Amino acid sequence: MNCRSHRLALSISLSLALTAAVAPSATAQQTEPDQPRAASTLDAVSVTGSRIKRAQVEGAQPVVTISAQQIQQEGFATVYDVLNSMNQQGSVEADTQWGSHTPNASPINLRDLGPGRTLLLVNGHRVADYPLPYGGESNFSNYSNIPSAAVERIDILTGGASAIYGSDAVAGVINVILRRDYQGDQVRLRGGTATEGGRDSFDVSWAGGRTGENWSLTYALQATRRDPLSGRDRPEMDDSDDMSYSNWTGQNRLYGFNPFTGLSLVDANTNERLAPPPGTCARFGGEFIDGQRLSYNQNTGALTNAGDYCGVARDYGDWGLVTGSEDYSAYLYGTWKFGEHTEAWATLSANRSIGRWTYDPPYVYLGPFQDADTGRSLYAIRQLTRREAGGWDRLANYNKEQSWDLSAGLRGVWADRFDWELSVGRSRYTVDEYVRTVDTARATDYFLGSPTGTAADGTSIYAINEARLYAPLSSSEYDDLVAKSHNSAYSWVNQASFSLSGDVVQGWAGPIRFATVAEVAKQGYQLSPDPCANECYPVDVVDSGGGERLRSSAGLEFQIPLLSTLSANVAGRYDRYGNYRSSAAIPTDVGTQSDTTWSAGLEWRPVESLLLRSTLATSFRAPDMHYVLGEPSSTNQTVIDQYRCISSGAYLTGGCNDENSNIFYTVDVNRRGTPDLRSETGRSFTGGVVWDIVQGLSLSVDYYRIELAEMIKDLDRDEILSAEAGCRTGTTISGGAWNNPGGAGYCDTISSRVVRNADGTIASIERGPINLAQMETSGIDASLKYRLATAGWGNFQLSLDYNNLLAYREQIYRTDSDENRRDERVRSRVRGSVHWDNGGAWDWTVYFRRLGSMRAVNWGTCARFDDGYQPSAADECVVTDTANVHLGETSKRYFGRVGPAIYWNLSTGYKITDHAKVNLYVNNVFNEVGYENKERFYGYGFYNTTLFNPIGREVAAEYVFTF
């Protein structure tokens, strides 16, 4: 029996043992003490995916619903945690990913089509986008600022729904329904930790409400804290030598790893390290170790030492693995009934979040400068340490975020047959990001002193202050040198809508129902980077842009009974985006995007217990505002000028490399928005069956296919240079023929993005988005639900959900292969739970999730030989280096897969009194953790973050009091 089988057997045995430990009872089911009871409202039944109110929950489009009780039973504490566990969720940026633009945000990526292609609704209304762009490119929604204490249920509709909801509803819609019209109060206190260490968590909430004869008030307050994880909390991934041994080079295997530089003084001409005074590294309290900059020539066996320096004791010890956060949320919802048919409502939700994160500690690069004593050209590198800072919190970066959403409206019944609603709202989201870095001028003055002159080559001359350079900083000195780069951003949306629905006329097979909606909204955003960023001090990520636009929309929907057992659903919608206004000093001329979408669905119920359904819909996504209005963000980068390489003939003699200064030089690289982008367009199809097999047992199976065209993609620097050379010469840098991958107009777009000087050299490169790519995905969703109430053994609930990815195709360029890339992704996902209560004081839930295997990160790479040498994949893994001992040998290609990843959660609750209950949670029971699933040929990160995380098993206890 393998390890997985042992885990499965153990989990089943554990579940049965825990179940048998509690005596059965015939008392009525009561899993929570006196849950607040629902009060009567004017609302009819509303289902996400349609504006027509209906009696049946299941309709033409598949909708997954997660109740607040299910969220708690399965062990999840936040809205994002449960959504991230759903089978429809794809992969997103990990907290550990270097250069993440949004470390405190939690995006959802339905069907792996991209976070911006999933529409978030809260109580059926749009909210403000997260202000910072995902990956520095596009807008998206943050799911970590929604208070779980206020959630009644979450509806997930996957597939195109633009005909109902407009832009962004390409991969699907997530509608978070918050509590309303409740009577009673409930306080929850929850605390927990990770058994591997770190990641302490605490959650306190108070939710409840009051109702009267013609009014209601629902409220919720919540505070949560989750501590961050850094490399020091996980010794298995705090240093370079924690990577899989199969990826160690020959030098690593013989002599170990060169530690990262902590303190080093280097000859700029010879690259020789000048040894620090004896005992220097030991003065830093274990943060630095004695290091030598070794270089090993695997062909000759020669080992050279470029000198001594102070290395970092643990290369990744202070790198953030998981962002920590403190979140405070408040929610209010109130209604007032006027007469018999009209009701006013208003709601306010607010959230404040402080996120703490880091990649590595602040450091300073000094020089090059001329040493006043020796005349040598030197430079110095000095990393600041956790010990000098006085703790990780003073080393880390942090975000301060605030969001709020205010909406109000009137609704009622007109002429005893039409439901209507008029609403207005405003939503705003602000982010202040503080990145700790070192002020270059102050650090230069502290470590080097004032310049004593200027050398002939223009560099400054300094007499190094060795007493400072080679000594730890005090806490106050750390504060003097460290600067907080402050980037601010905000986004907002003002919106108003009117909807009307009801029965139009009696048709031949039943009433024909309709719904119509008219909406108008104005949205905007602003990114304001620190003006000193990369001027006074180095900062990795700088985003700039801003502006606003107006959206107007109108939609119409019909539900038409065709037969007593067959009905059709048709909808159409028109959306217009225009009136753009940029915040840039130079106005941006942006046109108008107008899109019309439609959907059609069929529901056939040949018998009462069986539903056959299908939908066909179009969808669209208007260009993100940052795609259109992003302002230039400039950096100096060294590039190979591929056009000059080809036109000069250098490519024929192998002269297109960093040794040719006519080809290899530094240019200005900007990223900016593209004003003339078109909307992305999509088409989706679903077809399936819902079968109530027997009482309490139901099964649904649905096929889906989503196609997306005119996808917006950011062109990077190297793509632009390669395409410019190809457009102008018809040749690639390797000498082959160049094929135009983008069709008519592509070369015009490319040539406009490369600005050249009069001598033909590149002055600047303009990166940015264009309409280019297309994508298609298809698969099967299946769900089994079972409820059983027994007289002697209590009540059972079983839920099992399955997804199989049948196809995933993506073409960045039209000349790209249209092959099925499903093997590059998680091909199957399963989640399920079994809940049991004994009808009395006890209840238990076992939850599991299985993510199928996927390709290794470096799939297709060449395996290393036993001595650590790795041939090139470009040479088909054949060693071509004539000086190498493996000349002519071929290593195997690595076509490995990683996974599957299987997670088990266990929760149990005991009702102490009618008003008090205690819950215990164990999440990730078998401690499935990333560093135990390291990839064979992968560096830092070590494991696949789509499947695994570094947290491991978490345990928590919760006290619930209802009054």
Describe this structure in words.
The protein has 963 residues and is mainly beta. It folds into 3 domains: 3-230 and 322-345 and 352-358 and 398-434 and 486-628 and 679-711 and 774-859 and 896-962, Maltoporin, Chain A (Beta Barrel), CATH 2.40.170.20; 232-319 and 362-388 and 438-483, no CATH class; 861-895, no CATH class. It is 10% helix and 47% strand. It has a 22-stranded antiparallel barrel, surrounded by 4 helices. The longest helix has 18 residues, at 3-20.
Determine the CATH superfamily of the largest domain.
Answer: TonB-dependent receptor, beta-barrel domain
How many helix segments?
A: 13
The CATH architecture of the largest domain can be named as Beta Barrel
Unreliable residue stretches? 1-44
Query: In angstroms, what is the radius of gyration?
Result: 31 Å
Q: Specify the biggest β-sheet.
A: 22 strands, antiparallel, barrel
Quote the average pLDDT. Answer: 89
Relative strand content? over 45%
SS-based class:
mainly beta
Name of the level-1 CATH class of the largest domain: Mainly Beta
Number of domains: 3
**CATH fold node name of the largest domain:** Maltoporin, Chain A
Q: Any idea what the shape is?
A: globular
Give me the count of strands.
Answer: 45
Our measurement of the CA-to-CA distance between the termini, rounded to an integer number of angstroms, reads 51 Å
Primary descriptors:
globular, eight-stranded mixed beta sheet, 3 domains, 13 helices, 22-stranded antiparallel barrel, Maltoporin, Chain A, single chain, 963 residues, mainly beta, disordered N terminus, 10% helix
